[in-house]
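Sample entry (232 residues):
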Amino acid sequence: MPPNDPVLYERLADQWWEPRGPFAMLHWLAAARAALVPAAPRPGAVLVDLGCGAGLVAPHLAGKGYRHIGVDRSRSALRQARDHGVRGVRGDVLALPLQRGCADVVVAGEIFEHVNDLPRAVGEACRVLRAGGLLVLDTLADTALCRLLAIGIAERLPGLAPRGVHDPALLVDRTELATECARHGVRLALRGIRPALTDLPRWAAGRRAEVRMVPVGTTAVLFQGYGRKGVV
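Predicted structure, serialized as tokens:
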């Protein structure tokens, strides 16, 4: 199977919600992503979840007051997302089947490193975001260090990433990402994150249910971005 093949997600479709399965780290990232999302600013506020998968972020957004819309290409993932309160929409993040300005929040978790047209994906994320709305993302940096840690090592360790899920050629140039966001009116702030080193061995030994994601002083591997949309 070539790297970044969507078929991988179908082969592993029954393991999305396994806390110690191949998508374990996506659970940890979902919690960290949701922590950046404030309570809904108004009744009926909409949160659009790009590349939502099986809806892993949904439990962490419960009680924040959003109408949660998830966009994904995988029918099997969307069926599971709907079971967790997500209104699933089948579609491509490069051509979202959503109206301009429909979202109060757009979250893009671990999706930009899987697209072959970053400017278009960013443009679509910003297009559906209303003025004053919040963009929250996490992704992998286009650096040699990231290729070593996130692909060379993490894809060989159980629970961190399935083998072949990433294509090194699609890792995200941080300058290009920030420039494209700014072009669409979103001034993006970045911060690096990583799994808490004290949690990992306890999780591996079965003594901890999940691993916290903590800030780190570099964005050279895994990083979050967040910013509000102003006037373009």
